[in-house]
Amino acid sequence: MQNKGAIRVIAVIFALICIYQLSFTLVTKRVESRAEDYGKQMAAKEMQSLKLDLSDADKVAYKDSIEDARENAYLDSISEETVYNFLFMRKFSYKECKAREINLGLDLKGGMNVMMEVSTVDVIKSLASNPEDETITSLLNRATVLHRQNGGRYIDRFADAVKEAKNIELAAFFSTKLKDKGITKNSSNDQVISAISSQCSDAFQTTYQVLSKRIDKFGVAQPTIQKLDATERILIELPGVKDPQRVTNLLEGSARLQFWLVEKDLNKAIRALQDMDAWLSVGDRSSEEKQAEDVSEISSTLSATEQIANTENNTVVENTTKKNPLLSLFTPTNTQMSLAVATAQGQNRAEINRLLKKAQSKMPKDLLFLWSAKPISKTNEYELYAVHVEKNGPLLDGDVISDARDDFNNTGSPVVSMVMKDEAARKWAKITGNHVGECIAIVLDSVVYSAPRVNGEIDGGRSEISGHFTVEETKDLSNILKSGKLTAPAKIVQESVVGPSLGEESIKAGMISFLFAILLVLVYMLFFYSTAGVAACVALVVNLFFLFGVLASLGAVLTLPGIAGIVLTMGMAVDANVIINERVKEELLKGKNVASAISDGYKVAYSAIIDGNVTTLLTGIVLAYFGSGPVQGFAIVLCIGILTTLFSGIFVSRLVFESLLNKKGGEKRNIAFYTKLTQHFLENPKVNFVGTHKKQWIVVVLLAIIAIGSLTFKGLDMGVDFAGGRTYVLRFDQDVQPEAIRSALTKEYGSAPEVKTYGPSYQVKVTTDYKIKEDNEAVNNESIAKLFNATKPFYKDNTMTLEKFRSTQTSPLGIISSEKVGPTMAEDIQRSAIIAVLVSLLLIFIYIAIRFKKWQYGIASLASLTFDALVTIGAFSLFNKIMPFSLEVDQQFVAVVLTVIGYSVNDTVIVFDRVRENVYLFPKENYGKLMNDAMNQTLSRTFNTLGTTLLTLLVIFIFGGDGLRGFSFTMFIGIAAGCFASLCVACPTAYALITRKRKKDN
User: Ramachandran region of residue 555, left (φ > 0), alpha (ψ -120 to 50) or beta?
Assistant: First the structure.
């Protein structure tokens, strides 16, 4: 072996780097273990000192909350302290070690993954002189359609809509507000689009900066926020979050702070409501304004905070009183005792908003109705305020706050204290001086937080927001105010929540499958290759060590599919050693000694190993580029695993062989490459693959017909990733029947959702498209409330509340994970999936055609891969609803198809590589015989690689948990089909094409 010393040095250096990188993970785990023990000890002491009259369940929940608080306090206290002194050369704090450890994905440790989209539509409207102009509205509507169809940046689709419309001069609509950008009435459409695009980019950048500030102050360990410039979206990952509702409020709040004068004449406001009610009771009842009209137009103008309906029966009340359609939804207030005009149940607000919008023409121009931010009592009643509208709008508006902090008032209640900027402070002093004795409403994001009475002029720009707040709420409000105002609305288009209990179960399932897979592969290699199997085992262990070291070095995130990628990498990593061992056995059969056979075996195996892994790497790169979240994690692990496999399989195993060969004194030790049971296994197979290719084609056609038939008549079960919708995984405290859950949910939702058992019989997965096109927080809350109302009777625990049900912070039952994908996001995912598959096929075709110098090999590979993908997708359709686990088409399914493509082409390349070698050695031999010989010569390798890979997939299927069961099942079928396709589709196709060309040439 040439350069043996250099390779050994490189391997040692690489190993030391990996040890260094992995050491940080060990240190943080040790520190966190101490913190956990500390939390338990302190919680036990505090529980003993407190005499609490609580139920057993509440005591456990209270103790757990104390443990978490004390554990976090311990970690915060030592975050800057030295916990690791590396070789007495460099000291690292806990915070620094934490930043360098292997990161676990949200599916392993719990948390929240959010995709936010900046509303470019609102930016464009804000730049138009008249945003309600029919031309602008028409262009925006068309741009929205094009954006859904083609994706990309919204402003680019807006430009496309302008080009389609023709004869439209944008300068006429935008020159006024874009004057400072150099736009005049004579500017071209391209110049106007460029200016608008610049403003949109600024809004996107500002939104990213504001959200970054909010997240930094939220107190989550290792948050991630990433700009996706191509789609104007922002990806946010918050590990360990236990209250998703709090995060949603934090992220979607626009921080638009206003100060309005509360209407002094409340009777005037009441008369206005009466006039609107009277008009509604006798007004126009055209079909366009019927009761069932879509309320999303109103809902979309309100902030997430404004629309929270915290009720266990959150349903929109239908207007059954024709005489008083509006007033019947209100509860009158004593105007002598309250500043509010009326109160209403939270679930009635969406309907009231719709009616107010409908009767807007009857509302006085100087009045505006606003809801209170929080209900005033446990009965979920919200107050409706009437504020006076001046000519210039609110008394004070804009970015006026220089500082805000959570505080306590004189009574000890949590409040938010604010300090205004200098100019705003001067205005505030003048405003308060002019309105002594009157009430001023402090409005944030269109809801009233408080309406204090002005007792005198307030100097210094200080003000306070008070209300029925918790400490966490005041922290979040001060965070929002300090972080700044969003220049453009940002909404959540995709959301995924995983509870900590499900995360722990995923880690356990992943580790069990990981350890079992390693053990089985090692035993298999030793059983089949005897002493030579030792080299393969060492190379495999070193490969895993390098893989984890690289993951730690790159700061990559390890997800549950990522663990599956590691397990799959092990099965594929064995392939390099199998190829080498089989070629060495062939050299031994030629009469060579062991040392020469090993040397020559490695030489002839290199091309097959490299070609096979490169093609798989290409699909991994495509998947990493087009995938997101856990799927991207799977692809990254797969790509890194392929690279470490090449190094360990080719070089490390060779070093082990050299070590096994050499005895003291320079003698060579004999190495066995088989056991008694495997000595003659497929030693000289004589299968006539080429001669029976017509019979093989019959099987191929039958399988294709079955797959196409299933896809045509049964179809695929589209998950929320592709269809859009909401998915919830619910955990009960007893076994439940999916049919009973579905029946109860149908009554609540009005349509039948999909309900499946998810793992144990006390867990179900609910998928619904309920109001998915109405993308606002009120509908999200409404959906969860309906879910709770329908499933509450199935819990033995009668104390289950909506708060416990929706938050994993207070209970391990209820919603343990959830996902929401909006329609636009679903269309983007579909488009990315199709592009990913097509790009993978194209890259593989180009690589094989160039590498083997014949386009026929490229076409044959495409035929094989198309058949393999068809059978895999067809099996997904055929076995759906037959197997006792989910077979939904989601992003993981795309990962399966692409991985199967990569694996299948690896098989094909191995055979083609041997054909190429045979043609080179025997150029005058019949091509059919050379093809047949190549297939027989690689049969043993095909069997062993297929065996180890299917074995690891079987382990994932059995021990990998519910989240990977459908993944491993489909991968199992796809890889088996890929092996069949390599032998019965790729090779016969290449044979037919090449022999036909040879006949034409002759």
Answer: left
CA distances from 894 to 494, 614, 721, 819 (A): 18, 20, 11, 18
Residue 472, number of CB atoms within 10 A of its CB: 13
Task: For the chain, give the mean pLDDT.
Answer: 80
Do residues 941 and 864 make contact, with C-beta atoms less than 8 angstroms apart? Answer: no
Alpha-carbon distances, residue 706 vs 51, 866, 869 (angstroms) = 68, 15, 13
Question: pLDDT tens digits for 382-406?
Answer: 889 999 888 778 888 767 777 788 8
- Residue 679 CA to residue 941 CA, distance in Å, equals 14
Mark residue 499 as left, alpha or beta (left: phi above 0; alpha: psi -120 to 50; beta: remaining): beta
Residue type at position 193: I
Helix ranges (H only) for 283-387 are: 296-299, 349-358
- Please report the pLDDT score of residue 379 as a whole number: 66
DSSP string, 266-307: HHHHHHHHHHHHHHHHHS---GGG-TTS--HHHHTTS-TTTT
pTM: 0.64
Closest among 491, 494, 445, 479 to 207, alpha carbons compared: 491
Question: Residue 30: which H helix or E strand, with range?
Answer: helix 4-49
CA distance 366 to 363: 8
Contact residues for 523 (Cβ-Cβ < 8 A; gap 6+)? none
Q: 229-278, pLDDT tens digit by residue?
A: 766 788 787 776 666 777 777 777 766 788 889 988 888 888 889 888 88
Per DSSP, the three-state class of 450 is strand
Distance CA(249)–CA(373), nearest Å, equals 12
Please write the tens of the pLDDT for every residue from 208-227. 877 777 777 665 666 777 77
- C-alpha 823/C-alpha 829 separation (Å) is 10
* Sheet order of strands, 401-408 included: 401-408, 414-420, 462-465
